[in-house]
Amino acid sequence: MEYLHDILDSLFNDREHAAVLAQIINIDGSSYRKEGAWMLLKKDGSKIGVISGGCLESDLKHRAEQLFSTGGAEILKYDLSSEDDLGWGIGAGCNGVVTILLRDVNDGLRKSLMLIKEQLNKMEPILYFQSLKHLDQILFFNTNEIPIKFKKILQNIKLFSEQARLETIENEPFFFQVIWPKPNLYIIGAGEDVRPLAHLAADTGYSVHIVDWREAYCSEDFFPFAASLLIGEPDQLLNDISFSKLDSVIIMTHDFQRDRKVLQHIKELQLFYIGILGSKKRTERLVGGEIPHWLHSPIGLKIGAEGPKEIAISIVAELIDSRRKVI
């Protein structure tokens, strides 16, 4: 879902130029992307997102050229299971049939997507329904507004669960998707080892916020992609942040006393992920005993990482793993 927010941002910032939206609505077998993947094709030839490993994009681009500024839509099926040159995969052998909805982003769809963006900015998930009988109709609700007829398919929804599938509701076919807000990642500390982590986290769909007491370190020169740079004593700055249960915090100050103050502040918060850089012994000293279940330490998946870049990969891998495991 990492491209979905980029697509919404692009449609918000560029409201003049024609665009076509491609969405995977069903997979029969296996494929490169799953149901719920979005791709935006623009009339200038650029695109945001990917639908396949490259075998479908050319055909989708050609078909999009027939839809720009028409208000039209069509459902396409691509059989990627063929292992000869006659198949769509040209020997890719993905072993799946991919069904894609291709829609011109007309004024009505653009308005609906902007309303979805506004809701997501409030850190509220959206329940998105696309009629497959009337392709110009979409419905969307936040979790507090779900009509009774939709509630039965949304039981026990878990944080960040990437649900997207076909549903029949009152004899009408729908494509259904849960769209989650872009998750916030607050990194406490702005040292040199934070830079590759912040960059990679931003690339994988996080809104990255850097918190540090050193103005020379907490700089746009080092973090040009950051959503915010907060300069001051971390434990004090945290008082001014309205955290949500979707947010994550990683502590990387390399300062024992500051780490302790930050942990004291956030231990009562119900955050999605809290991790701290450092050895298990150091963390045990910080918390005064056994490491609590809510604190990831040592941080990162165990891949034998060495150096800032590899450690960044292991940490982001653990963030992704934590999100996938809730499904």
Give a description of the structure.
This protein has 9 helices and 15 strands. It has 327 residues and is an alpha/beta fold. The chain has 3 domains: 2-106, no CATH class; 109-179, no CATH class; 184-324, 3-Layer(aba) Sandwich (Rossmann fold). The chain has a 6-stranded parallel sheet with strand order 12-11-10-13-14-15, covered by helices on one side. The chain has a 5-stranded antiparallel sheet with strand order 3-2-1-5-4. The longest helix has 18 residues, at 307-324. The protein is elongated, with a radius of gyration of 22 Å.
Q: What descriptors fit this protein?
A:
9 helices; alpha/beta; 327 residues; 26% strand; five-stranded antiparallel beta sheet; six-stranded parallel beta sheet; elongated; 3 domains; Rossmann fold; 15 strands
